[in-house]
Amino acid sequence: MWLYYFLAIYILSCAIFIFSISNMKKGRYVYIVLTMGLFAILTMFRSEQVGNDTQAYIRLFNSISSGVEMSFYAKRYEIGFLYLNKVLSLISNNYQIIFVVSGAYIYFAYGRLIYKHSNMVWLSVFLFFTMRNFDLSMSGIRQMLALATVSISYEYIVDKKPFKFLCTVLLATSFHTVSIIFFLAYPLSKFKLTKRFLFTVMVTSAGIYILFIPILKVALSIFPRYSYYLNGTYLDGEARIATIISLTITALMLIISEILNHRFVYKNNSLRRYTIISHKTGEDDVQAVFLLIAYAFLLISLRGTILSRFTNIYSIFAIIYYPNAIAKMKNNKGKLLIIFITVVIFFCYSTMINLLRPEWQSTYPYLFYWNK
Fold first, then answer.
1. If DSSP states are collapsed to H, E and C, what string results for 341-353?
2. Which residues fall within 8 angstroms of residue 37, CB to CB, at 6 or more apart?
3. How far is CA 341 from CA 1, 28, 86, 231, in A?
4. What is the pLDDT of residues 198-226, one digit of tens each?
5. By residue range, what is the domain housing residue 310?
6. How far is CA 2 from CA 9, 165, 266, in A?
7. CB atoms within 10 A of CB 341
8. Number of independent structural domains in the chain
9. What is the pLDDT of residues 21-53, one digit of tens each?
């Protein structure tokens, strides 16, 4: 756990030091390089003992490298990930290459997302870490490759380039099939977080929750590679503590962000007469909708926690939306208070999981591959 505490302190210390001596634009770039760069190095050069699925990925790479046909694994792994292993095996027969390439790509994409869209990059990086995305990059390579590609496709939503958006989401889906649900992101980006939209999403979620079993059977008939989860704990129907905590955190982030993105203007000094003014940008509207969709998937995942994987596709934008809402605050004392509370809560949340449920990702104790 020493590495975990070091990284938490490192993220905050870099922020204090860099932004106290550099201008904002230059400091943002340096900060992203120093933090996301370190995450990338740790991910690229980890031991086979770090991460729950690391050894499975090593066996896959070694098999493909030795000449086993990719079709043998087609029911278990997505075609894009298989081809990635095949191409890399032609470059080197050392399995570490899959971790080096995937780690570099993942942190380049996430660093780019934060650099371009966050108005408080250090808090975005801190949330990225404490929301356990760093841990996921140690274990769920396919999922993180897909999420990194989804973060790139977001650019094409903002720039209104549907063809490029479709291409990048297809690429993400070739790494992890659940990314297919991000095809909905483009039409969803046309909506705003109104009462009507909120009602529609909640009613739809309730319907899916009630009809979960028949919908699941249809989904598994289309994507049979996920059938093996039926024999595990992912679909046992029990609401695991991680899902409940994630529900609470997602709801709080959405509610607080919405409050901070609106301002009450009272008329004639009357508390009964007021107008609510929104300070949202177009991107804020899109990210708010995505965060609501993530919350809806979390609600449904109470029926089977494997569905929380769908949540990550949309919840990754919380690390942008929430800090940007805080950055708009004009009351500096209030801003510092919210930042302090946020840092404490997320650090405690992450620490509690790493101490009580280390087996969920098995990131710690960390070892470099040359120390195995």
1. HHHHHHHHHHHHH
2. 107, 111
3. 23, 23, 47, 40
4. 999 999 989 988 887 787 777 777 666 55
5. 191-328
6. 11, 40, 51
7. 11
8. 1
9. 766 778 899 999 999 999 999 999 999 989 888
Average pLDDT over residues 286-304: 90
3-state secondary structure of 263: strand
Can you read off the two tokens belonging to residue 179?
A: 């990314």
Any idea which of 24-33, 263-272, 305-314 has the lowest mean pLDDT?
263-272
Q: How confident is the model at residue 268 (pLDDT cuts 50, 70, 90)?
A: low
Q: Which amino acid is at 251?
A: A
Q: 174 in a domain, yes or no?
A: no
Share of the chain above pLDDT 70, in %: 90
Asked whether residue 253 is domain-assigned, the answer is yes
H runs (alpha helix) in 118-240: 121-130, 133-139, 141-158, 162-175, 185-188, 195-210, 212-222
pLDDT at 327 over 70: yes
pLDDT for 26 equals: 80
Q: How far apart are CA 337 and CA 75, in angstroms?
A: 50
Asked if the structure places residue 316 within a domain, the reply is yes
Contact 160, 153 (CB under 8 A): no
Strands 262-266 and 274-278: antiparallel
| Gap between the Cα atoms of 224 and 203, Å rounded | 28
- CA–CA separation, 66 and 357 (whole Å): 36
CB 303 within 8 A of CB 254: no
Judge contact between 122 and 19, C-beta under 8 A.
yes
Nearest CA to 326 out of 279, 275, 277 is that of 279
Lowest mean pLDDT among 15-19, 235-239, 308-312: 235-239
**Distances from the Cα of 218 to the Cα of 52, 212, 227, angstroms:** 29, 10, 11
What is the rounded CA–CA span in Å between residue 261 and residue 283? 12
The verdict on whether omega for the bond into residue 214 sits within 30 degrees of 0, i.e. cis, is: no
Residue 161 lies in a domain: no
